[in-house]
Every structure is written in structure tokens, then in C-alpha cells.
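## tool: complex_structure
## caller: assistant
## args:
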Amino acid sequence: MSDKPAGSAAPPAAVVSPAHTAPPPRALPGGGATKVHRLVALVLDKPGVLNRVSSLMRARNFNIDSLAVSHTDQEGLSRMTITLHGDDVAVEQAAKQLYRLIDVLKVQDVTEEPTIEHELALVKVRVSDANRGEVLKLVELSKGRVVDLTGESAVVEVTGTEAEVDAFVALVRTYGIKELVRTGAVVMTRGAGSIEEALKR
Amino acid sequence: MTMTKGGSAKPPRSGAAAIPPASPPPPKTRERRSHVPAAGTEHAAAIEKAQREMLHEGTRAQSVPADAHPAHAASAAAREARARIGADVVCEALIRQGVGVFFSYPGGVILPLYDVLGDYPELRHVLVRHEQGGAHAADGYARATGKVGVCMGTSGPGATNLVTGIGTAQLDSIPIVAITGNVPSALIGKDAFQEIDINGITLPMTKHNYLVRNADDLPRVLAEAFHIARTGRPGPVHVDITKDALQQETTAPHPTDAEVIAGLPGFRPNMDGHYRQLKTAAAEIAAAKRPMILAGHGVLHAHAEAELLAFAEKTSIPIAWTLLGIGAVDERHPLAYGYMGMHGWKHVNRAIQSADLLFAIGMRFDDRVTGNVRTYAPYARIVHVDIDPAEIGKNVAVEVPIVGDAKRVLKAIAPMVEATPIEARRDYLDQLAEWKQDSLGSSWHGSGAWRDGLLSADYVVQRIGELTDHEAIYVADVGQNQMWLARYAGFRHPNTHLSSGGLGTMGYSMPAAMGAALGVPEREVWAIAGDGGFQMTLQELMTLVQDRIPVKIALFDNKKLGMIRQWQEIIYAGNYHSAHLLGPDYLKLADAYGIPATKASSPAEVDDAIRFAQGVDGPALVWFEIAGEQNVFPMMPAGKGLSDLIEHWGGPEE
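## result:
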């Protein structure tokens, strides 16, 4: 489970009282470096599943950064992409707790795998006659798309990794952001392998 | 629609003072009438007879074919004369699942079920006095029999009253199915009378839960509920059924077992341990010099007692057990070492602290077992076997995780381990035996209060164990009584020790004993309650009487919340706030309920009092006035380690 063996001290060779040899403290589960993890969960498309997942994460003291849910191409099957941060052991525990839910079919931590990660954001930027051209140029450079334009605002659609979306948002913040909405990341592993197909076997 | 938090402020209420005080209504003179027939009348005799028959049938309901009894045939005819509705499906499902008895309380929206119950004489309905008692009774029934227990209640308060019992079952992995009525589906979400989001309440504290709005879904949902409750790591399942679903006509058939499994693709418990992990575990066992088996509740759930013993005997590894693992092995067996943890035996905790390998099976390294994890079993490598992968690595990091059913894992690993004779572990086992002797000698057991002529609780528990030949089912409440029972009663058989270990639910013992007594009528059943816990659920005394459930209640009355007092004495510098607890005259109380009772205040009276209760054909109560300030030792203060046990406190003796 943990790659740090807990009982790493040599066991007493003979029958000795442990009080005389001070053993190192037992390693606690977790306590490692915290980083962002992405879990993909395939769940039954039933009422209340999202509630079960979010309730479990709350009750077990895991913090969800983002959670994106959608249908899959298989009827009755939904897919969740859960972004959370924690150390490897804590996230593994989160995945195992999720797996206990009857409506959850599969949980996979894809953090260490090659993946495509995408997030979509709509940003309503404040524009004026003076800076409209400038903003549109930035959108073009950032591979964004203007989807709505008025005399005072532009709604810009950007997609990309979380970091790319962050960068764009930072870029247009100087003009004034009237409104912002982000979907949270969705991920898919690269290559021919399929989480859904693995489920069927 | 735009919703903004914090909306407009309401004008302050004008206050209740505006209402003029009503003059008291004139006392009405009413003719005193009773719905209970007076003793000796024809009606009373008929009720007596019906109760007797009900009790008799409850114990053999499962083996009786539906058409064997004239009453059954009549009921079957009554059923066929009308359309089948959702409530019929519930009754059919209970019969199909072998539920002979269930515990329930009626209410508005579950009345459609009560309307048809009379057509199912195969089902014994026990009318509890509070839904919590019903949930604990289902739990006690499940623990004692190994079968799924069933409790029911109505919507709103009926459902919320079940919650404590469902939580108790959840923390101890007990298979129960709790069924509640809910308001008609059109009223859901409208804050209807007695409507509460019970589905949302039980969601995080059940293995799974359902809300059924359509009678056609009921056969599948109920079959799934029982399957989920009993399969893999057991647990409670809650099924909430709307009133209209109970009343709706349906022809939906009950699914087969294969259909149930196929319909639950996300529920496939891993039963067999991974071969490579088993091999690794066998190698760990071969290398270990001071191994110890830690047996938990999972051994009992899996009925793996014989396999555990065979494995221990082949490898000559001693067995320690958790609170809920009591009964996994006969305590008299030479390899049976003892009960571990916060109030466990000193020698057991000492052995765990010096072990070089812990073979933990069906237990979850609860904080009451490990104390401070940093100092827990510092020399030990750990093999952890559990059917729930989430338990492995949750509380302690382990070297060899094995996910599987205790029975199957023990069966599979037994041929892989080398036979090790006792002689090969002679030094180790001799030292353990020495520690055990030392620990038993220094215990409070049989000393202290006893010496002062006061009644010592551990002595009472020991005598209850001995006078019942250790063959009864003993149901603990929570607190000191629970620890005394675990330590001193002496257990021989699995499922004879029932205790709310995980949730620690005071008031558990008597209702749970009720379920155990109905589930296992061939065993004597003793509820061991403190005066605090007893006063929490004593309304079920009347259920014992009405349904003639032969529970023997040992009331340990120290007129204190004993464990609270002990913690306040030792940890909170003697600040005894709310530790003192008044109680009624329990003899008068029992008399009012019609329960034979006696009192014992000195050691000399103990045996006669126990024998008195044993002699009663039906429920009985023994009021033990025990020493007021007795502590349970040893004690591991919360947050400390297993090596930091407190063995004495205060004066030279305590």
C-alpha cells in the first residue's frame, strides 16, 4: 500500500522488552507531498449519484477542486472527472471510498498517465471603442473565440488546460471581467486504451 | 429567476404578549373507557391466545409452508381476492428473504402496509415502542442470527427515530434493511405533513439507500436491498417508499438472484485474496518470530471461526481479538490470548507492542484499538486482510494488503504456510503466558469494591457468565458495563456477544437483546445495561411484555454515568459535571410494567438474583446496585499509545 514500510525497524531478534530500544515512530498513512490528482469515475446514470459522490467526499474530508459530469456514449452510464489535491495515499483512499458506492462502476486515477485535459471557460470582458481591437487581438492570439459582442462587452470562449485558461483570464483581467464561468477539467487518456472498454471485460 | 441570499428583512414579530391569556377550560367529566379488555373476560382470553400463537409461530415461521396452516390458507385466499399492491410486494419480499420477524411502528403513510399485514400470518410483526428500539432490535436479530434484520417506520419522525439504529448498524457493518414510508410522491419536496428528506439523511450512513415512487420498482429494489445488505462487507440498506407506491397495483415479478446480481454492475465484492499477496503473507509468517493474529468482526461475518482456529493451530500463532471480534475463538483455547485495545487486557496490548508481525483479519485498526498510531506496534510488519479495500491503509500503513473474505483467505493461505509446532515458539509463548498471568493478577477483577462489601461490577458480570454456562447471548450497552462484559463474562461461541462498538450507542442493549431473543429462541439472552443506557430506551420494557420476549435484564446501577465519571476523574481533574444520575425505583418500575424483578446490593445476593431471573418464563429484571465509583482498568487515555496504560488511580488500591 505505502512504499514506506511502517515496521521498518528490525524486529527484536530475541525476546526483549521493547522499552529498551526506542523504535522509530510508525509511519502514518499519507503525509506525503500534496499535488493535484485527476480521478475518472464511471457511474450509473441514476438520480442522486452526484449527491452520493459529493456527500462522500465531504464526509471523508476530501476537497474537490472541480467535478465535471456528463453522459457517455453508453446508455445509463455517466462519467465524472474529479480534480482534487492531496497526497497519493489520501487520493487512493478517496478512490477506494468512491468505489464502495454501489452506483460507482470504476474509479481510475489518471494523474500519472498521459492524458488530454481540457477545460472550457466563458469570459464576459468589459470592452470599449478604445480597446475593443486590442482585446480581440488577444483573444485571437490565445486561440479563443468571441461568441457574443456588444458595445460594452465581449463574451469569449476559451478552451485548454487549466493553466492555459488561467493564463487567458489573467491576461484579460486588466480590461475588467464582468462575468466568468468555467466547466472544470475533463480528461481522457491518450492512445487506444479505453476506460469504458476496460469496464466491459 | 434570480435568487439572492439574505433577502428582505421581515418585520419583527409583534410578540406573543398580544394574545390575551385564555381562561382555563372547564374540566370535562368523561366516562372512563378502555380499549383494553379487562382481565378474565372472553376478549382478554382471545388476545392472550393470539399472543401465544404469535410467539409460537414466530420461532418456526420459516419452515412453515404457506398453505400448511388453515389460517395461512385463509390469508392466501384473502390475498387472491384482491389486487396485488405495493404493500403486498413488501410482504412477499420479506417472506422470500426468510424474514420471520420484523420490528416496526405504524404511522400515517405506512398504513397501506399495515392494511395488508393481516393477510400474511407468516410474518411476525413486533410493535416496538419507539423506532430506535426497532432498529436496534433488527440489529440484534442480525448479529445473533447472521441473517438480515428488518425494521420499519413511517415518514418524518418515524424515519428520523430509526437513524440512530441505522448508524449503529453502519459503523459495525450489520446487515439490516430499514423500510420507511414516505409522503405520496406528488407531495415530495413540498414540506408535507411528516415529510423530511430521510433519503438525504441516511445517504451518508448506509451502505446504500433507495427512494421508491413506483410499485413496479419494489420487487427489484427490495431484492437488491437484501442482497447488498448481506453480501461482501455487510451493512444497513434503507428503502424509502412513497405512500402511493405502497397503494399502487402492480404485477411486477420478483427477480431471481442472478437478475439481482446482473442489475448491480457496481457491486462486485472481491471475495478471494490475490494469490501473490497470499504468498507474500505466507513468507512474512515464515520469517516472523513474534507473530500475533488480530481477529475482528469480519471473522464472525464470514463464519470463519473454524478456519481461523485451523490456521492459528497450524502456525502456533496466538490470537488477540477486537471488541467485536469476541467469540471468534473460544476464550479457553490455549492460543486465545485476549481482548485488545483501550480497555483491553494489558498482556494483549503488551504483546502487540512487542510483536514483529500482526496478521490482522477482518478488523479495521480503529482508534480504540491502536491508540496513537505513531507508537502502535512499533516493531511489527502488518498483513491486513479485509473484504473492504478502503479499510486497508486507511488508519495504519500496512506491508501486505489482502482484499478478500476472511473465510476464503484463511482457507487459501492455510496450505501455503509451514506447520510450526508449539515447541518451535516455546520461548515466545512462555513469555506471553507469563505476561498473561501477571496481567490477570494485577487486574481489579475480584478485588477492590468486593473487599469493601460493595458490589463489584466485574464480579457480577463474571457470575452471569458462569451461571449461564457461558452459553447465553450477552448484549452490552455502552460505557463501563460494556467493557466489564467484554473482559469478564467469558465467551465461548461466535455471535453470543453483541455490542455497539463503532457508534457506541447508549440504550442499545435491551432493544438489541429483544431482537436476539426472537432470532435465537434456544439461547438465554441477557442485556447488560448501565443505569444511563437503560434509561434511554426503557420504553421497550412494554414490548418485552406484550410480545413475551424472554430477555433477562441485568441493570448495573451505580447511580452514575460511570464512564463519564471515570474520564472526569482521570482526565478532567475530578470535575464531575453531570456524572451523577438519578434513577427511579427500578423494582416499582418493573412492577408497573408487569416484569418480575429483584435487587442485589451485596456480593452474597448476586447468585440468587441471577437464578431468579433465569427462573422466570419471560422477561425479568435484576437490579444490581454496584459500587458507585468503580473504574475500568487498564485504560488507555485517548490520544495515548498502547504502552501508556493506566492501571491504577488515586489511592493505594485504585
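## assistant note: The CA atoms of residues 114 and 323 of chain B lie 39 Å apart. Residues 6-18, 27-37, 54-67 of chain B have pLDDT under 50 and may be disordered. Handing back to user.
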